[in-house]
Design brief:
Blueprint: H1 6-13, H2 44-49, E1 56-59, E2 65-70, E3 76-83, H3 97-104, E4 108-109, E5 112-113, H4 116-121, E6 126-132, E7 137-144, H5 148-160, H6 168-186, H7 193-201, H8 216-221, H9 224-234, E8 240-246, H10 250-261, E9 284-290, E10 296-304, H11 311-323, H12 328-336, E11 340-349, E12 353-362, H13 368-385, H14 389-406, H15 410-424, H16 429-439, H17 442-453, E13 458-464, E14 511-514, E15 520-525, E16 531-538, H18 552-560, H19 569-579, E17 582-587, E18 592-599, H20 603-615, H21 621-638, H22 642-655, H23 671-676, H24 679-689, E19 695-701, H25 705-716, E20 741-746, E21 752-760, H26 770-781, H27 786-794, E22 802-805, E23 813-821, H28 825-840, H29 847-859, H30 868-880, H31 887-896, H32 900-910, E24 917-922, H33 924-932, E25 938-942
Parallel strand pairs: 2-8, 9-13, 15-19, 20-24, 20-25
Antiparallel strand pairs: 1-2, 3-7, 3-8, 4-5, 6-7, 10-12, 10-13, 11-12, 14-15, 16-18, 16-19, 17-18, 21-23, 21-24, 22-23
Helix pairs in contact: 1-13, 3-6, 5-10, 11-14, 11-17, 12-13, 13-17, 14-19, 18-24, 20-25, 26-32, 27-28, 28-33, 29-31
């Protein structure tokens, strides 16, 4: 999840900084002498008026509530089932049961045995998953319309006819998977914070006191009959909401839901226990040690839940304090004092309670106590004086803009309706929230902050150091002991319905135009929501870094939106927020981009801002130094993260340090290069790569191209390339040859090991990779891929394993990621090699795997381009890989023509497990003996 009373705060800080208690807040002044004219945004009320999700509702005789939303833009339907049960409903000794049962419901049901995800894969779903939180458990998938009946059969079967498939073997397997999911989260830097926070804020017996993942001991103790009873008590149709959103009407929905769900009997009604909002008797100050790079300061309060009248004012206050890019904490601690590298403040509003969080990551070398005093002073000022009208309006505009974007997918609309029905009994609850954001006043925000944040707070400081001993799972869980359970009487149902013919994808027409300076525009139209996406893309990427300036390119990109010649970083952030726009700069290995997402109402001023960011970076010396220090802190953080350690270490081993790809895939560089960079270096980096003769503009909008082009011409048409030479990247033709070996990065006290391996393939991203990728669906990427089915679904050693063909433009790597429990690290590498060697030897693609993969890959195309963001990514990918505009429209027919023999041949020609280089991030005292038994050379490195 993401103290003291007000009087005590003022008493502490008044001698040092009395101004904070009385002076109204003023935005820090711009550093530049020339100020840009303010941009004019549409009123937030105009944005709110554009948000509407028509719905109808009916209830089956068994109590199942059904909501229907019609949206025929694509031949897909989102199926979303929300159960009124979450971790807050778990009794003492049963923590983690709701989430454990979420996993069990993917294990198959009485009339659809075997993996639920495997059966669903055949339907071609998108957005397929399930989640558990304090207040609910939900399952969702978006399927092609002809597959809807089978999806409803499968959902109804696990709602009403599940327990015959929940046996001891299934329970033991999923127990292990969930415990590995817990280890994976706990293994991250700061990963133990939530446990301490919940136990401090909520008293013994409070429903929200324990985490959703639960404790190892309680998961160990989960017995078959206890788990079955959990299902009987909580998963009846009268305790659920079903939403069908998309290519469907109410009449069809009534017929189908009655057909598939109508016979399921009612269950008990879940009446959640009382969950009062606790107030600490006195401030609680605690310290936790963790293997982290930065000291982290936190403040937490228990506050009202999402239906309370103070929920929106508190959320707005959190955004003003530390949620906006121009927040108080950002402006004062990150930009002005430069005593923190990052800050955040947010309201997590659950059904009955909420948690108000503040987080400050202290800059290395700064005194945490001094930063803590400044934090308390800034908070005290906000409470004492309240936010400004402009701050509140910027929060409201940002919220409305994000809400509009969220509703582009049918599953997004289904979730909004379900949440409103489940928690408020009103699918239109989102409208009331939007209206509350649009009408909230500074006085209401101040009153809510004064009411709730002047109470004692829980303050936890997380400092670098050794963790406490990790509480592991039992070697022989008590719940795994076979106990005779009552026989389940199976109920025979109708046959599973067949899937109808799924039509091939109709990709939007791709149009082109050119600005007067020669920059090409590549455009597609999407009219689902009034939103425009723009990406100004450059042939650069992290591969553009010189070998002696690693990280220069990404640092230059970071500085683009941290100050132009007429707007400083705060003013840029404020302008974005007033417009409800989002401007981001970033890169992949091959391309760099400045991207804009804007409500179309505010497109013209948003493009002015985007143009300013791209064309006129100031590279102000104070901003260069600030972001340099942030980057150095970021690199230090990477050296504490298992994932970052692995992706920093592997590329040089695969490609060699001289290759443009032989540097950390994070793009952050190294300390020596970042420390040595000058302002002139960064300006030269911009001149070499961020220029019109190296740019393409990609657009997806609800406006036609004829209306977009003049606006882009006004923003970029007079942009001219500098006289200096354009940047060049040089790649060797030869595929690097690397001997197979293991590099063990010693990260003590790791409850889990991260295995990250791979090799460079003899191909480039511009080659036709369809056959190889389809083969690798069977081998490495699908949920039921050979490697995931083995390590997760058979052995239970991992939460999830993937092997991917990473389509870099020039030299493609094959990468394997496998987080596994520490005591199975060596066995896991052996198991991976066994699966790869078997697949690439005599055990190639089976007929069942071929059918499932081709059906899944072709049928899922219908739901793969619902959003304008997905369309934009498709346009950019086609350009990067030199594909024709109709590439996605021809995918289905090309995929259906593939044979098992072709898939086998493609995989065997490309992938050679004997060349895999392995990175293992884990505790060497536990892992090293396991690795040495594998017979490969093992090199041990410290985690740095």
């Amino acid at each position: 999840m993401r103290l003291v009373s007000l009087a005590a705060i003022l008493a502490v800080i008044a001698p040092a900084a009395p101004v904070w208690a009385h002076a109204p807040y003023e935005t820090p002044a711009a550093a530049s002498a020339v100020q840009a004219a303010p941009l004019q945004a549409a009123p937030v009320s105009d944005l709110v008026a554009r948000v509407d999700i028509p719905w109808s509702r009916f209830t089956l005789d068994n109590g199942l509530t059904v909501l229907v939303h019609e949206d025929h833009k694509a031949p897909v339907v989102a199926v979303s089932v929300w159960y009124n049960v979450g971790s807050k409903d778990e009794p003492a000794g049963s923590t983690g049961f709701a989430h454990l049962f979420e996993h069990l419901m993917f294990g198959g049901s009485e009339n659809a045995p075997g993996s639920y995800l495997g059966r669903m894969r055949n339907l071609g779903p998108t957005n397929l998953n399930g989640t558990t939180w304090f207040d609910r458990t939900n399952y969702f998938e978006t399927v092609p319309t002809p597959a809807l009946e089978q999806a409803l059969f499968l959902e109804s079967d696990r709602m009403g006819y599940l327990l015959g498939e929940v046996g001891q073997e299934v329970l033991d397997l999923q127990r292990g998977v969930v415990q590995n999911e817990k280890r994976q989260g706990d293994n991250q830097p700061y990963g133990l914070f939530e446990y301490a926070q919940l136990e401090a804020l909520f008293p013994e017996g409070h429903p929200y006191r324990h985490s959703t993942i639960g404790s190892m001991a309680d998961l160990d103790a989960a017995s078959l009959e206890t788990v079955r009873n959990w299902f009987r008590e909580n998963y009846g149709p009268n305790n659920a909401v079903l939403v069908l959103s998309g290519d469907i009407d109410e009449a069809t929905a009534r017929t189908l839901t009655e057909r598939y769900f109508g016979a399921i009997p009612r269950g008990p009604v879940n009446t959640p226990a009382d969950a009062p909002i606790p107030t600490l008797a006195a401030p609680v100050n605690a310290v936790m040690s963790d293997r982290v790079a930065n000291v982290r300061l936190t403040r937490s309060w228990a506050v009202p839940g999402l239906l309370d009248e103070d929920a929106v004012p508190l959320a707005v206050g959190a955004s003003v304090l530390g949620g906006l890019a121009s927040s108080r904490l950002d402006n004062e601690l990150v930009r002005e004092d430069q005593s923190a590298v990052s800050v955040s403040s947010s309201l997590s509003d659950f059904h009955r309670v909420g948690i108000f969080d503040i987080t400050v990551n202290v800059k290395p070398g700064q005194d945490p106590a001094a930063v803590e005093s400044r934090l308390d002073a800034i908070l005290a000022d906000l409470i004492a004086n309240g936010p400004t009208e402009d701050e509140v309006e910027r929060v409201a505009t940002t919220y409305a803009s994000r809400t509009i974007q969220r509703l582009e997918q049918v599953n997004g609309k289904a979730s909004v309706l379900a949440e409103g029905q489940l928690y408020a009994g009103d699918p239109d609850h989102y409208k009331h929230q939007l209206e509350a954001y649009a009408s909230v006043t500074p006085a209401q925000v101040q009153a809510a902050l004064q009411k709730w944040l002047t109470r004692p707070a829980y303050s936890l400081t997380i400092q670098p150091g050794e963790r406490e001993a990790y509480v592991e799972a039992a070697a022989a869980p008590s719940g795994a002991a076979p106990v005779e359970a009552a026989a389940i009487e199976r109920v025979e149902r109708m046959p599973m319905p067949a899937i109808g013919d799924v039509s091939d994808l109709n990709f939007p027409a791709v149009e082109r135009a050119r600005l007067s300076n020669g920059v090409e525009i590549v455009y597609a139209r999407s009219t689902t929501v009034p939103v425009t996406h723009v990406a100004v893309e450059f042939d650069a990427g992290y591969a553009a870094d010189r070998a002696d300036r690693l990280g220069a390119h990404s640092l230059m990109l970071d500085l683009l939106d941290d100050g132009t010649t007429t707007r400083n970083s705060t003013q840029l952030a404020e302008e974005e927020e007033r417009l409800g726009a989002s401007i981001n700069t970033g890169a992949s290995m091959d391309r760099s981009a400045a991207s804009l997402t804007a409500v179309t109402t505010n497109l013209q001023p948003s493009l002015v801002l985007l143009s300013d960011v791209v064309r006129n970076p100031a590279f102000a010396p104070n901003e260069v130094e600030r972001l340099r220090q942030q980057r150095l802190s970021s690199i230090a953080n990477e050296r504490t993260s298992p994932n970052a350690l692995a992706i920093r270490a592997l590329p040089p081993l695969l490609y060699g340090e001289g290759s443009p790809y032989g540097r950390p895939f994070t793009g952050t560089g190294d300390e020596a290069s970042i420390a040595a960079l000058t302002r002139a270096d960064l300006a030269a980096e911009h001149a070499a790569w961020i220029r019109p003769d190296n740019a393409t503009i990609f657009v997806v909008s609800d406006l036609p191209l004829s209306e977009i082009t003049p606006q882009l011409e006004a923003a970029f048409g007079d942009w001219r390339a500098p006289a200096s030479a354009k940047g060049v990247k040089t790649f060797g033709d030869a595929v690097p040859t690397t001997p197979s070996r293991i590099v063990l990065i010693d990260r003590p006290q790791s409850p889990q090991s991260l295995i990250y391996g791979g090799a460079v393939l003899p191909m480039s991203g511009t080659d036709d990779l369809l056959t190889l990728n389809t083969a690798n669906s069977v081998l490495g990427t699908d949920f039921l891929s050979r490697i995931n089915a083995d390590l997760r679904e058979t052995k239970g050693w991992s939460y999830g394993v993937r092997g991917t063909v990473n389509a870099l433009e020039h030299q493609v790597p094959y990468l394997i990621s496998a987080p596994v429990q520490a005591n199975r690290t060596g066995e896991s590498i052996a198991a991976l090699l066994e699966q790869y060697n078997g697949f690439l030897g005599a055990n190639g693609v089976t007929p069942a795997e071929l059918e499932r993969t081709i059906n899944g890959n072709t049928r899922s195309l219908a739901g793969s381009f619902e959003t304008s963001g997905q369309l934009l990514s498709a346009l950019r990918s086609n350009a990067l890989y030199q594909r024709p505009d109709d590439y996605y429209e021809t995918l289905a027919s090309r995929t259906r023509a593939l044979t098992a023999a072709e898939l086998d041949a493609a995989a065997r020609a490309a992938i050679d497990p004997s060349r895999f280089v392995w990175i293992v991030v884990g505790d060497a005292s536990v892992v090293q003996p396991q690795l040495e038994a594998l017979g490969l050379p093992v090199e041990v490195r410290p985690a740095q």
